[in-house]
Amino acid sequence: MVGIILYGSFELAPYFKKYTKVLDDAGIAYDLIGWRREEKALYAGENVFMYEAPPAKRHDSLLHKIRPALGYRRFIRRQLRAKKYDKLIILTTQTALILADVLLTAYRGKYLFDYRDKSYEYIRPYRMLVDTIIKHSMETAISSPWFRESLTKEKQYLLVHNLQDENLKKVRRCCNKKEPGAPIAAGYVGALRSYAYHKHLIDCFANDKRFVFHTYGCGDDCERLARYAAQFPNTFVHGRYDEAEKYDIIETFDIMCYNYPSSFVNDGAIANKYYDALIMKKPMFVNPRTRLGGWIAENGLGVGVDEEETQISDTIYDWYRAMDPAAFSKTCDSCLTQYAKENTAFEEKIRSVLCAKGERGTR
User: Fold this and answer.
1) pLDDT for res 12
2) What are 240-245's contacts with CB under 8 Å, separation 24+?
3) DSSP state letter for 256
4) CA–CA separation, 354 and 356 (whole Å)
């Protein structure tokens, strides 16, 4: 039997389905162990174990973040003692770190590690611990090829894309470019970041009659941002949405925001919305100082803008009006084809690892 553990909510981590698909196909039993935050529950049942205690807020002090994490760690350890899983699938570095002692002793060489984001790897002791966890995993998956640059070279990594099979059924045939003279709908969709970040985006489009700008997603500052956006006739903050609504929301956009600030954490990361944009044939405005942002701009999938500049609407407008929708759509399809092939290779490797002898329970 396999335990799939996440420091967070499975509702916000659809990539876990790549593992459950392999396990379901092989008839191997598994449990989902997670921490339900504010999301609407989509997963429940006898094999779903969710920690329900309130999480720390985004901007809480380190001490206030540690206490809830320790509570979740105790919850997981009770589950591990009760079920005695043959193998574990560890989703995200946060999950791996709070269970480092367990992984490196009782489950040494018995876990898959899914590495999703950089955080404090620039701090040597932190990086050494992450590298040690990687070295003693059965396999380590990474969601970006650029992550290899900051991780141990003593491991062959499995590349996996945040591209879900069910979403590939929604691929649009072509990019529908807005007619000249009509307002271009720019949009942000996803978990909200800091108030300053979203206020800056609103300021970039406020009172520009060539655009409307929509923000969808939940976060600590959602109500405050909505009040700020309401001062302008063309900016809107809509708040929480159901995951099932996401592609309907993206369909209303003409161009998507993938303009992440430059930072150690963001550089090299690939967010779900990049794949969403390719599927829905929506160009992006990006920060070219990040690895993916630069790649998007260089390959005609979007336009690079200065992250600190508020006068970006002219750059976005000029690029959008000059965009060739047919060429753009062809590039989207080429990328999606390549990513689907790489995901197939990933699933074949994971199947060979998870389906090896030793699992006790089967469905």
Assistant:
1) 81
2) 241/189, 241/216, 241/217, 242/40, 243/11, 243/14, 243/42
3) E
4) 6
Burial class (CB in 10 A: 0-12, 13-18, 19+), 59: exposed
Q: Please tell me the predicted confidence (pLDDT) of residue 360.
A: 43
Any idea which residue has 């105790």 for tokens?
A: 74
Q: How confident is the model at residue 263, as a pLDDT?
A: 85
| Segments in 206-300 forming alpha helices (H) | 222-229, 246-251, 272-280, 291-298
CA atoms of 7 and 313, how far apart (whole Å): 38
Summarize the confidence of residues 28-49 as an average pLDDT.
86
Tally of residues, the chain: 363
pLDDT the model gives residue 87: 97
The rounded distance, in Å, linking the Cα atoms of 224 and 170 is: 34
Q: Which long-range contacts (CB under 8 A, 24 or more apart) does 165-172 make?
A: 165/21, 167/247, 167/275, 167/276, 167/279, 168/279, 168/336, 168/340, 170/247, 170/279, 170/280, 171/279, 171/333, 171/336, 172/279, 172/280, 172/281
- Whole-number pLDDT of residue 264: 86
CB 168 within 8 A of CB 341: no
Contacts 24+ apart (CB under 8 A), 43-50: 43/10, 43/11, 49/79, 50/9
Instruction: Report CA torsion sign: 338, 94, 147, 155.
Output: negative
Of 261, 270, 291, which Cα lies nearest the Cα of 343? 270
What is the helix (H) or strand (E) element at residue 187, kind and residue range? strand 184-189
Using one digit for the tens of pLDDT, what is the confidence trace for 150-185? 999 999 999 999 998 889 999 999 999 999 999 999
The pLDDT assigned to 310 comes to 79
* CA terminus-to-terminus distance, the chain: 10
pLDDT digits (tens, 9 = 90+) for 50-87: 998 887 766 667 677 788 899 999 999 999 999 999 99
Report the candidate in 86, 115, 88 with the shortest Cα–Cα distance to residue 99. 88
* Total-model pTM: 0.88
* Mean pLDDT over the full length of the chain: 92
Measured between alpha carbons, how far is 1 from 84 in angstroms, rounded to an integer? 8
